[in-house]
Design goal:
Length: 192
């Protein structure tokens, strides 16, 4: 795969609304672009925590350990549902710097199915000469996509950080996260 095709594939995968993007956008809406951008290292650490082992274990790991893949999906669905519930009940923290934490973003990203897809499918084999460059492209794209979602969240803010608008965004994000969790669970039931 050429570097441009790889970059296009990675951006297409990572830009799709998902749990990490939702949290980064909510952070942008709650506390502004500067605070949301400070979460990018947590996004990168979360992705790399999963992407590198997935690349090392290769595309055949799921065949050898099918229960591990099921358990990982269950953990991801459970965590995302818990985030959805917390976000639904969360007070509005407009501009206070509180709200979405780096720990939440890290764990959510680490459990994000996109990380498994990137590591096990998109990245070249770790032993290949193309692996370091592809990993660097992936990390740069993940950071850029997260910054884009942070900016998108920032753009939903009014100049005063309108609490009603932020509450609406938090509720919409909560519903979206619940739908993602439900789709993960549904995919497990469809396989059974």
């Amino acid at each position: 795969m050429t570097p441009l095709l790889f970059l296009t594939s990675v951006v297409a995968l990572l830009a799709v609304p998902g749990p990490t993007n939702t949290l980064v956008a909510v952070a942008g809406a709650q506390a502004g672009l500067r605070r949301a951008v400070q979460l990018i290292p947590a996004v990168l650490a979360g992705y790399l925590t999963t992407v590198i082992p997935a690349a090392l274990l290769g595309r055949h790991a799921a065949e050898h350990w099918p229960l591990a893949a099921i358990l990982l999906k269950l953990c991801a669905a459970g965590w995302i549902l818990l985030l959805a519930l917390r976000l639904w009940r969360a007070p509005v923290f407009a501009g206070s710097g509180r709200g979405v934490t780096a720990g939440q973003v890290y764990l959510t990203t680490m459990l994000n199915p996109k990380a498994l897809i990137a590591g096990a499918v998109l990245l070249p084999a770790p032993g290949s000469a193309a692996f370091p460059a592809a990993l660097a492209i992936f990390a740069a794209a993940a950071g850029a996509v997260a910054a884009g979602w942070a900016l998108g969240g920032q753009l939903t803010r009014s100049s005063e950080g309108d609490p009603a608008r932020i509450r609406l965004l938090q509720r919409a994000a909560s519903v979206w996260l619940a739908l993602i969790s439900g789709s993960l669970l549904a995919s497990l039931l469809a396989v059974s």
